[in-house]
Write a structure and sequence with these properties.
Layout: H1 2-20, H2 22-25, H3 30-53, H4 59-68
Length: about 70
């Protein structure tokens, strides 16, 4: 359980790092850039879901793909 909590902590810190650079990309279009970053996160989550749902790919291979991406 402690390992999962540590993993979740680092995951949320990585998310925060991603969103913290949004204002520096284009200050006049903060909303648009935030939307693009958020959409990219949702797309990635959907693709990861398909990796784990696939019958041809094992869980260990799916984790390997996620780690390399």
């Amino acid at each position: 359980i402690a390992a999962m909590l540590l993993f979740a902590l680092f995951l949320k810190m990585a998310n925060g790092c991603t969103y913290s650079i949004v204002p520096f990309v284009n200050r006049q279009a903060i909303g648009s850039v935030s939307g693009i970053v958020g959409a990219g996160g949702n797309l990635g989550a959907m693709l990861v879901g398909f990796l784990f749902k696939s019958k041809e790919i094992s869980y260990s291979t799916a984790f390997l793909y996620i780690g390399g991406g």
